[in-house]
Specification:
The protein is of the alpha/beta class. 33% of the residues lie in helices and 15% in strands. It contains 9 helices and 11 strands. The protein has a 4-stranded parallel sheet with strand order 7-4-3-11. Helix 1 crosses helix 9.
């Protein structure tokens, strides 16, 4: 450990990407994680459709059961698809407006964003998505006022990449429910006063940063929610050699490389 220059806390995608960039500069590092393996969510807690993970059992025994998925981000929509594809009577709660895109559209948007204003790129993406998916409002899906690229840049919210869920929604295989009023054992009451019984409820409502619990003296970098005070793309550098990768809610593009390059310059200045 004497030769370690950088300590990376977290062996998820951001930590591994940062480690890879440091390795390119031959900068020694140690990486720690509370789990016993790297990328633990992918290895141990992933759902069937998630890519870059080990093989999982098929659906997570729910065939013929009434299952409610709460949350309509990428995880919620993919879990709903997996459940329906394996015979579960699936419903999903869609509370907030979302953009539905294809992987190809997102790739196109990221490519165009290098040379065109984001609002122009967003207009093109929304037009293309409307041609592909049609009007989804009849299925309970509303688009945000912000375009997908600007929304990602300003709020960190990603567009949903469709894996077949939209087709199931249109066919009525997956039912869209409104917001939940309360849950009483296996009975869910929705805000429209409708009540339904479910055998299982899956919460795909996101996660919360725990950095403030274990990181001391990080107030200059993180807010009360454990997220960077500075806005993307300048959120990643703090004081006293503290860096932040993966909490900017804007993807990994460039962040790990920026951190590695900055550490390299600091080391160079110290040795010089």
């Amino acid at each position: 450990m004497e030769n370690v220059v950088v300590l990376i806390v977290g062996a998820g995608p951001a930590g591994l990407a940062t480690a890879a960039c440091l390795s390119q500069f031959s900068i020694p590092y140690a990486i720690v994680d509370r789990e016993s393996c790297s990328a633990s969510l992918w290895r141990n807690g992933a759902y069937d459709r998630l890519k870059l993970h080990l093989a999982k059992e098929f659906c997570k025994s729910y065939s013929g059961m009434n299952v409610l998925v709460v949350g309509s981000g990428n995880s919620g929509m993919e879990i709903a698809y997996d459940l329906a594809a394996h015979g579960a009577n699936t419903s999903i709660v869609i509370r907030s407006p979302i953009h539905i895109m294809t992987k190809e559209l997102i790739r196109l948007g990221m490519t165009l964003a290098r040379r065109l204003p984001l609002n122009l790129v967003d207009n093109l993406l929304v037009m293309a998505a409307n041609l592909i998916f049609g009007d989804l409002s009849r299925y309970g899906i509303r688009r945000p006022k912000m375009g997908p690229m600007i929304l990602k840049s300003e709020t960190g919210r990603s567009a949903v990449i469709d894996v077949g869920t939209v087709g199931f929604l249109k066919k009525g295989i997956i039912k869209v429910q409104g917001s939940i009023s309360k849950i009483m054992c296996d009975i869910v009451e929705f805000q429209c006063s409708k009540k339904e019984s479910f055998d299982a409820i899956v919460f795909a409502t996101g996660y919360k940063s725990t950095a403030n619990i274990w990181l001391k003296n990080g107030e200059n970098m993180l807010n009360g929610n454990g997220l960077p005070i500075k806005e993307y793309p300048n959120h990643w550098k703090g004081e006293d050699g503290l860096y932040c990768a993966g909490l900017g809610r804007s993807g990994l593009a460039g962040i790990a490389a920026d951190i590695a390059n900055d550490i390299k310059s600091v080391i160079g200045a110290m040795s010089g």
